[in-house]
Amino acid sequence: MNDCIFCKIVAGEIPSYKVYEDYDVLAFLDITQTTPGHTLVVPKEHSKNVLAMTEEQAKTLFAKVPAIARAVKEKTGATGMNILQNNEEIAGQTVFHTHVHLIPRYDTADGLKIEFTNNMDKFDLAELAEKIRF
C-alpha cells in the first residue's frame, strides 16, 4: 500500500528501530514507547487488521509473537507483558496495517492501565453464545 506507514517501514523507506526481522515478519520499537521496550510486530505482507487476515497470514504472524515477546521481556528486565492487538478505529487501531503491541510491564505505575469491568448482569450468556456460535 503506497500510503501505509508500516508498509513504508517494511520497505525501508522510513527508518525504524528493528529488534527482529525475517522473511515474513518485522518487529520494531514503537515510537510512542508506552513503556520501555514497547515493540510492534507486523507482517511484511499488508493486511488491514486481524479481521482481514487469512488463516495462513495469521499463523505466520502469530507464530513469531511468543519468541519476540520473550526476548523483549528478558532483555528489558520486565516482570510481565501485555500483548495487545486492536482492530478498527473504535478499538483503538490508528495504523491500518495489522500489528501486535508487545508492552513490557515493570510495575503498576508504569504508564499503562487496562481495566476490565464486570457486566455479566447485563447479558444472558446462553443467548449471547447462541448468537455468536458458528
UniProtKB/TrEMBL annotation:
Record GO biological process: nucleotide metabolic process
Placement of sequence motif Histidine triad motif: 97-101
Active site: 99 (tele-amp-histidine intermediate)
InterPro entries: HINT, Histidine_triad_CS, Histidine_triad_HIT, HIT-like, HIT-like_sf
Superkingdom of the source species: Bacteria
Domain HIT: start-end pairs: 5-113
Protein's UniProt name: Histidine triad protein
Source species: Floricoccus tropicus
Taxonomic lineage of the native organism: Bacteria, Bacillati, Bacillota, Bacilli, Lactobacillales
